[in-house]
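re: ur msg from earlier - yeah i can do the flavin-adenine dinucleotide complex, just paste it... oh wait u already did. ok heres what im feeding in:
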Amino acid sequence: MTQQPHRAVVGTDQPRVDGRLKVTGKARYAADHGPAEGVDGIVHAVLVESSIGRGRITGIDTRAAENLPGVLRVIHHGNAPRLPYRDNPFPDSINPPGERLRAFQDDLVRFFGEPVGVVVATTLEVARHAARLVEVTYDVELPVVDLSRAPADEPETYARGDADTAWEAAEVHLEMTYRMSRNHHNAMEPHAIIARWQGERLTVWDKTQWVADPRNELAAVFGIPREAVRCLSPFVGGAFGNGGRTWVHSAIAALAAREVRRPVKLVLTRRQQYFTAGFRPGYEYTMRVGSDRRGRITAMVHDVRGESSRYERHSDDLSIGRMLYAIPHVRQAVRHVPLDISTPTWMRGPGWSSAAYTIESALDELAHELEIDPIELRMRNEPTQDPATGQPFSTRRLRECYDVGAREFGWHRRNPTPGVARDGDWLIGMGMAAGAYMTERAAAQAHVRLDANGTAVVQSATSDIGPGTHTSMTQVAADALGLPMGAVEFRLGDTALPPAPIQALAWTMASVGSAVQDACDRLRRRAIALAVDDERSPLHGVDPDDVAVERGRMHARDDPSRGETYRQLLARNNRPFLGLTGSYNPEESRFSMYAYSAIFAEVAVDARLGLVRVRRMLGVFDAGRIINPRLADSQALGGMIGGISQALLEHTVTDHRDGRIVNANLADYLVPVNADIPDMRAIYVDSVDDKADPIGVKGLGEIVIVGVAPAVANAVFNATGRRIRDLPITPEALLGL
Amino acid sequence: MFPFSYTNASSLQEALDHGQRGGRYIAGGTTLVDLMRETVERPDELVDISGLPLTEITMTPRGGLRIGALARMADVAAEPKVRNTYPVISQALELSASAQLRNMATIGGNIMQRTRCAYFRDVSADCNKRLPGSGCAALHGYNRTHAILGTSESCVCTHPSDLAVALAALEAVVHLVGPDGERDVALTDFLLLPGGTPHREHAVRPGELIAAVEIPAHPRPLRSGYLKVRDRQSYEFALTSAAVALHIRGGVIRAAKVAAGGVGTVPWKLTAVEDHLIGRRRSPQLWSAAADLATEGARPLDHNRFKIDLLKRTVERQLLIVGGTE
Ligand SMILES: Cc1cc2nc3c(=O)[nH]c(=O)nc-3n(C[C@H](O)[C@H](O)[C@H](O)COP(=O)(O)OP(=O)(O)OC[C@H]3O[C@@H](n4cnc5c(N)ncnc54)[C@H](O)[C@@H]3O)c2cc1C
Ligand code: SF4
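and the outut:
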C-alpha cells in the first residue's frame, strides 16, 4: 500500500477550522436553524413539567393558556394521539433496557419535572407564559429518591479468584465506603430541536452526539421508516454524554409539529436540563482492599450501589476495577437502586471516573497504611498483561506516565506525612492517581470527493461536540490526499452522510478517522492510477507506489520535478470530480487496548475555614498518537477541570420529601469559575499505538477526567490528614462539622 | 414572564407618581428580571429609575459618606473615597456577583435584592415569602445555605447582600424619598426580620424609593475589611461572611463595628462581639473570645449546623486580619 511520505499536518498544532465561525456567531447550532435552511414559519414549544415526584395526573386545565392570543395548542396525555413506539433497543440506539419515557402516553408521573404537557405558540414569550398558566392537578404519592435508603436490584457480578476469602486472609485489609453525588452535564448549549414534517417525512435539527439516534428513535416512536427521518446537527455546544440518547423532548417536539402542522422549535430551559436529559448517577461504593505488607494487592472487592430510574436500568461500565492492577482476586457486585427519578446516562468518563475515584482513593489509603509512596505502590501492582483477559497490551505506558509526571510535577517535594506542609494559613498537600479508559472502535464510513478545482470535500455522519472533529478529520484527510488543510472541507452531522458511530467512548478519531483515512488513501491512489495510465500525464508509466502527493501535486518520489496537479489531471480527463466511499470495520482485537492517565494535584487547604484551592495540576496521558496538540490540550484541560469540579463542587441536590431537584440552575449547581482553576498542564507520552487502529490513536476525550477527582482528594488528605470519602468535598466535611 | 407595562421615569417626581400607583422600580434589573422570568415576581408595571440623577458619591458636611442609590456597584467599589475610607465596602462589593453584574447593578437594588432561597425561586414549592401561608419548604428541606440567626418558623432564608453586611457594620442609614417627602431609617431597622410575615422584607412605604445610603461619620478612623467564605472562589453568595471595622490605639480597641452575612435573615450586626472588643487589648485570644459571641441565639437547621462554627471562625479570622496582633 502506498503511504504518503510524511504527515504534514497530523500531529501539528492547528487552530480549529471552525473557530472563526464559532466566535463570530455564525456556527449554527440546533436552535439557530430557520429560514436560511428553508424552514419557515417556525412556532415555539415550551414544556410544562410536573411539580410532584410521583403520582397520577387527575386534571389539566388549559383554558387560561389556550385563551392567550398566539397559543396554537396545548398537548398532554388527555389529548395526545397514541403513538406506535416501536422498540428501538441498543445498538440502534443507546436506550437502556426498560420501558422508555413516552410523550404524553399515560397519566403517570414517574419523577419530579417529568413533562406533562407542551404549549405551542407563535412566539416563545407567549409559549412560555402560557406554559405557566397550565394548571395540573395530581394524586400525589411519596417518591423514593434516597439512594442510601432504597432497596437495590439483584447485583450484576464479576469475579475472578475468591476475593472475599483473599481479603479476609490478607495481611493488611481495608474497608471504606465512598459516596459520589449525582452530577449533571450542564453543557453550555441547552438541548434544542427543530422538527419539521413534510407529509410523512420528518426532518429534525437536534442537539445530538449521533445523528442516527434521533433518526432511529423518532422513526420508532412514530412508526415510520428510518429513511423518512433526517437528522442534522452541524454544531453542538458541548454534551459530555447528555446528547447521546434521544430524550423524550425530541419526540414531543416532533409530535407537536405534527399536531400543529408547522415546524416546531423546542429548547429546554436550563432548569429542564436537570429533569429529562440524563446525569451521572450517584454512587455508594464500598471498597475492600487486601494486600501483603510489601504492597502486593491480593484482593479487591467492590460493592456498589448506583442510582437508576424505575422505568429503565442504566448501567455504567465499572470495568476499570478489573484491569488497572495485577490483582489476583477481584469481585465486583454492582446493584442498581431503582428510584423515582429520571434515567441517568453516560457522563464524561462514564463509570470509569466514578470507579477510579474509589480505587485510586483506596490505593492512597493503602499506601498511607503501608507507608509506601503512592507511585511506588502502583508500580508494584503494575501488570505485564491484561489482568482480566490475559491479553497482551497494545501499548501500556503507565509507568512512563508516573515517571514523567513525578519528575515534571516535583513529586519528590511531597511530604509523605500528612498535615505538616504549610504556607501561612494554608496546609499544602500533593496527591496523585491513575486512570484508564478503554480504547473502543466502531465501524464507520466516509465519503470523499475531489473536485476539478483541486479541493476536496470529505463527509461522514459523525458529530463534533467540542473535541474539534471538524479540524482533526480535515488534518487526516489533508495528509492522506496530499492537500493543504485549506483545500479540504469536512462535513458532518447529517444522516444523509455515510454512517458513523456515536461520538462517545472517545472512539471517533479511531473509527471515523480511520474511515476518512481509508477513503482519502484510496482516492489518492485512484488519482495516481489515473495519471500513471494516462499517456498525456508526465507521470505516465511511473510505478504508482513511487508517486507521492504534496499540496495537490502528484510527483515521482525520485524526481519531484516530474508530476502534475490533481487539477491538471481532472481537467485533461474531463472529470468534474473523483469520489468514493471509504470505510473502517474493526476486528476483534487480540490486544488489551486502553488509554491511561496519571494525574498529579497540589492543593492548599485552609483547615480553619474549610477551603480547598487546587494550586497546580498535571495530567500525563498515554493516549496514542496526538493528532493536534492544541485540540488535545483543550480536551485535557477541560477534562481536568471537570474532574476538579466533580471533586470539589458538583452535586445535584434532591429534596427527599418530594423528589424536587433543589438546585436546578447554574447559580446553585456549582461548576468552577476561572478563579477556581489553577496552573494546569497536560503531557502526552509519545506512544503511537499501531495495534489499536490505522490512525494509531487510543482515544483522549474520556481518559482526561479519569483519575482527576481522586488525585484532588488524595492531595486533600496529604494536606490535612483528613480522609473525606464523599464527593464533592465541602467545607463542612473538612471542618468535620 | 407575566405581561407588564414599562415606564422610563424622566424625573424623580414621575417615578414617585408611578410608584405610588403600584409601579415597581427597576434599576439595573440584574435580579428583578430573573425573578420575573421565573414568575416569582409578577409586577404589572415597571418604572425604570436608572436614568435618575441618584448616582453621586459624596462626603457629607459632617464627615459621613453618602452613596446615591443608583450608583453602580462597580463604580462605588472603585471610588477612591470609598476605597480609602471604608475598604470593607469596596471589598464586599468586589466579592459580590461578577464584574458584568457589578457594572449594571445598583446600590439600592443590591439592598433590595430578594433571597436566594431555592424554594423561593421555584414557584412550584411552598414558600411563605412568595405566597404567604403556603408554608416554608426550606424549614425541613435542603437548607444548607440558609440562616441560623433571626429565623422563624415561617421563614429561614438569608438576606443575600454582601454590601448590606458592610453597611450594617458601619451603621448606615437609608435615605428614602416618597410621596410624603424624605425620611431616614437605619439599615438595621430597614431590613425586617421574617417573624410571621416573611413577605414583608423592608420598611419601604408604598411609592417610596431609596435615594441614597449614608455611612455616618465615625469619630475615630476605622481600618476595615470584608471576608467571604464560599464553596467556589468567585461568583457565589456567602456561606458565611464578616465585615469588620476597628479603631485601635495603643493596642486597645476603641471602636468596633462588626456584622456577619450568610447567616442571618437580615445582615447580622454582632453587638455582643463589638461590646466584648471595646476597651480590650488586641490578641489572638481576644479575637477568639469575641468571635465566640457571634453565634449567640443561633438555631441551626438540618443541613447548616456547620455554619455555627464556621461563623465563629470567619469572624475570628477577619478580626485577626483587620486587627492584627501585637
Ligand atoms: C448570578 C448572580 C450572582 C450574584 N451574586 C451576588 C453576591 O455574591 N453578593 C451580592 O451582594 N449580590 C449578588 N448578586 C445580586 C446583585 O448584587 C443584585 O442583583 C444587584 O445588586 C441588584 O441591583 P439592580 O440595580 O440590578 O436591581 P434591580 O434588579 O433593578 O432591582 C432589584 C430590586 O430592588 C428594587 N429597587 C431597585 N432600586 C431601588 C431603589 N432605588 N429604591 C427602591 N427599590 C429599588 C427593585 O424594585 C427590585 O425589587 C448576584 C446576582 C446574580 C444575578
Ligand atoms: S426560607 Fe423563606 S424564602 Fe425560603 S421557602 Fe421558606 S419562606 Fe420561602
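cool cool. The mean pLDDT of chain A is 97. ping me if u need the other ligands too
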